[in-house]
């Protein structure tokens, strides 16, 4: 990736990857088709599309529409946040062990 990537600490790398994933999820959210007519409501997945170019409704009628699937995007955000927290914990533990090993070699 380059010298700038190699110069980052493992914890920073985990945070950068987490931020990149979060931005990708925001740029390409999950969409769903909606139908609502006289008390009948339904949704079906419409896939992932760029935020500024959502999918078109199945039919051009006021009863049909599209929207972001907020339940799914919240689950994705939670998974990224959880993964980043675990990654930061593991990376910081690894950094600490590496630092302690280097210090023990210096003292000898």
What's this, in brief?
The protein is α+β, with helices and mostly antiparallel strands and 108 residues long. The chain is built from three helices and three strands.
Percent of residues in helices comes to 55-70%
Strand order of the largest sheet: 2-1-3
Poorly predicted ranges: none
Number of domains: 2
- The number of distinct helices, counting runs of at least 4 residues, comes to 3
Mean pLDDT reading: 91
Rg calculated over all Cα atoms? 22 Å
Helix-strand pattern, N to C? HHEEEH
Report the biggest beta sheet as strand number plus sense, adding barrel if it closes: 3 strands, antiparallel
In terms of structural class, how would the helical and strand content be classed?
Answer: alpha+beta
Record field, number of beta strands: 3
Ends: how far apart? Answer: 35 Å
Which of globular, elongated, flat, extended, rod-shaped describes the shape? elongated
Beta-strand content: 15-25%
Question: Could you explain how this protein is built, in words?
Answer:
With 108 residues, this protein is an alpha+beta fold. It has two domains: 1-28 and 73-108; 30-68, no CATH class. 56% of the residues lie in helices and 20% in strands. It has three helices and three strands, in the order ααβββα. The chain has helices spanning 3-6, 10-27, 70-107, and strands spanning 30-37, 40-48, 64-68. It has a three-stranded antiparallel β-sheet with strand order 2-1-3, with helices on one face. The relative contact order is 0.17. The mean pLDDT is 91.
Question: Which terms summarize this structure?
Answer:
single chain, 108 residues, alpha+beta, 2 domains, three-stranded antiparallel sheet, 20% strand, elongated
């Amino acid at each position: 990736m380059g010298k700038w990537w190699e110069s980052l600490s493992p914890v920073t790398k985990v945070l950068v990857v987490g931020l990149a994933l979060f931005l990708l999820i925001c740029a390409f959210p999950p969409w769903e088709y909606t139908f609502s007519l006289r008390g009948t409501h339904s949704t079906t997945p419409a896939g992932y599309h760029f935020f500024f170019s959502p999918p078109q409704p199945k039919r051009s009628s006021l009863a049909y529409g599209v929207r972001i699937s907020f339940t799914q995007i919240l689950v994705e955000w939670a998974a990224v946040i959880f993964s980043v927290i675990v990654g930061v914990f593991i990376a910081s533990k690894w950094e600490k062990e590496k630092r302690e090993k280097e210090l023990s070699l210096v003292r000898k």
